[in-house]
Amino acid sequence: MLRKLLPAAVAAVCAAMSPAAHAQVEIQWWHSMGGALGEQLNDLARKFNERQKDYKVVTVYKGSYPESMTAAIAAFRAGQAPHLLQVFEVGTATMMAARGAVKPVYQLMKEQNEPFDPKDYLPVVTGYYSDLKGNLLSFPFNSSTVMFYINKDAFKKAGLPPEAPKTWKQFVAAAEKLKASGQDCVYTTSWPSWMHIENFSAWHNVPIGTRQNGMGGLDTVFSINSPLHVRHVTMLGELAKKGMFTYAGRTNQGDAKFSSGECAMFSGSTGAQAGIRKSAKFDWSINFIPYHDDVAGAPQNSIIGGASLWVMTGRKPEEYKGVARFLAFLSRTEIQVQWHTGTGYVPITLASYEATRVSGFYDRDPGAALAVKQLTNKPPTENSKGLRFGNFVQGREVIEEELEAVFAGKKTAQAALNDAVRRGNEVLRRFEAANK
Amino acid sequence: MEKRVVFRSAWLPYALLAPQLAITVVFFFWPAAQAIWYSFQLQDAFGLNTQFVGFENFRILFSDANYLRSFRTTAIFSVLVAGFGLGLSLLLAVMADRVVKGALAYKTVLIWPYAVAAAVAGVLWAFIFAPSIGIVTYLLKGFGIHWNWIINGNQAMLLVVIASVWKQISYNFLFFLAGLQSIPKSLLEAAAIDGAGPARRFLTIVLPLLSPTTFFLLVVNIVYAFFDTFGVIDATTQGGPAQATQILVYKVYHDGVKSGDLGGSSAQSVILMIIVIALTAIQFRYIERKVQY
């Protein structure tokens, strides 16, 4: 598909280059990619700027995801919004509801007549960023998912075969052996809600909320206090009590606990691999996340995290031509491959996955391919294509606070999850009222 | 006899006042008025949709158990920070006042922490007490104490109190030391001749004479605990775990900036404004009367 589009894109670029008399139009792109990721991102903009002369993409690092989103909201209120804004997955519903502030990507590409086919992307990726009619609202950019890592050396020391447990039952058995062998930190996790509520639900094909996890409308309510959720969180609470689960915090603090060798098992983002590869002084492996084997249909597929690019309104019409052209450029296979292999984010177009596979990259780095396999394990269902909850920045925090209460032994899983649902629903209702 | 200076010009006094007034209006009255206005509204994050909702934001706040808990957290936090901050620095000042040799070096070292930014102080202490790599964590483990403030609310509170107190001790120390040095030596010597021991001299002479300083520091420390500790909390616990360290001012920021709920956040800042006005009024009207200048 992309091969067919390439000549068209090249032709478009050439056509744009011929009347190079007038001044360059600047496209502002606000992002949250720090460090090495930021360099990779700047490289994409540089390539685009070199290949044509009409438009110049200017990248601006605006701090963490919540920070750049806040900055863009303030800028929009002042009439100074950037053309492109990188928004993390939990901000998706907020952006989507801000109808006057964002320009849907499918509409932009149609208006500007740029070649673009959402079907080139993995369904689990486009599903996350599309409306119910299947129209792509934001441009998928950097996607990750949650994986399960084990320290093989610690497994061997505990007399276990160095293979990751596939089910939670096997997990508990392995945890007990690891603990008995004197392992101080048996298991830890990064992003507790993303792993143990959001991906857990998708992986077991149970809803996180009604109305297709909120994708069907703002009147969604959370359903994370189901018997399966309670059972899973109870298990985690018991593991914490027995010293087999060490809580690390709400973001990626777990990464360092695993890569330093402190914890033997760990669930975290695909993005954690780069750090582990750099600092781990032990043999490790990356695996599918465990599942409860008595749940029918499990494992289903995991869902993505990461961010997408939103086109903001309020700019001059001719500038949107440049935005569309830049997005078309970003969706090219060679650019996608460069981004995927350079950053460790999962490949999000089928063509880039194929191209990377053919290049032999996955033979050297099997973990990179495994993430795609987990995301596409089965065709996504209503429960596993993603989630869309209003003000989920706050909603996720509510969930994390309640999980913390369980891990600290202050609440039972049932009480905590009931409270998470009640408090989470208050956040949803308030968002619904503010976005009528 | 009138001592007042009388301006003959009609506009000159206003012109002279104007810069000060302009700053007060732009940086205080205007934002305060805006906060009050927003507190009656329900808005989406982008400001595309605004509804007037009356006292709805306040009603939601006061029916929210977490908001009420934040009051308790703030009260505990302020009392701990002001109490330990004043107590420890008074102790240090009394000790420093008696040191003869190397007094300058001793005092200089005690004043240093004041030059450290709140966020840096927070990060420093967060490192020392870091759950798995911190030096104190390691030592505590030797005593069989499991230290992990990421999940233990009381330990998190202890951490932010320690960092905040440490940051403020220098300031309090300076004022206490100056206060101590202005107490006439003759008074103390007379008491000593009359047979009063060090403890008695401290309680009946030093403490009463220090009361203006103590009062001033109490006001400053409570305001500090209410507002300036934001940096410490943001750099360490960010209000967690499970809101154990979410003081009122952090919640205002959290709900407004991070959660995009401008109405609710504005309502909170209006309440905070009322509290601070009330606290200051009480302090100056009531406590100040008991202070001997």
Describe the structure.
- The complex is a heterodimer of chains A (436) and B (293).
- Chain A has 436 residues and is of the alpha/beta class.
- Chain A has two domains: 2-144 and 304-375, 3-Layer(aba) Sandwich (D-Maltodextrin-Binding Protein, domain 2), CATH 3.40.190; 146-302 and 389-434, 3-Layer(aba) Sandwich (D-Maltodextrin-Binding Protein, domain 2), CATH 3.40.190.10.
- Chain A is built from 20 helices and ten strands.
- In chain A, β1 (25-31), α2 and β2 (55-61) form a beta-alpha-beta unit.
- In chain A, α9 (192-203) packs across α19, α12 (253-259) runs parallel beside α13 and α19 packs antiparallel against α20.
- Chain A is globular.
- The two termini of chain A are 40 Å apart.
- The relative contact order of chain A is 0.18.
- With 293 residues, chain B is mostly helical.
- Chain B has one domain (65-290): MetI-like fold.
- Helix content of chain B is 70%, strand content 2%.
- Chain B is built from twelve helices and two strands, in the order αββααααααααααα.
- Chain B has helices at residues 12-38, 56-62, 65-98, 103-111, 118-128, 135-142, 153-181, 185-193, 198-228, 230-235, 248-258, 262-285, and strands at 41-43, 50-52.
- Chain B has a two-stranded antiparallel sheet.
- In chain B, α1 (12-38) packs across α12 (262-285), α2 packs across α12 and α3 packs parallel to α7 (153-181).
- Chain B starts with 11 loop residues before the first helix and ends in an 8-residue tail after the last helix.
- The model of chain B has no long low-confidence stretch (mean pLDDT 86).
- Chain A binds chain B through residues 66, 70, 73, 76-77, 94, 97-101, 185, 246-250, 253, 257, 260, 262, 391, 393-394, 401-402, 404-405, 407-408, 410, 423, 430-431, 433-436, and chain B through 42-49, 51, 60, 66, 131-133, 148, 150-153, 240-243, 255, 257-261, 263-264.
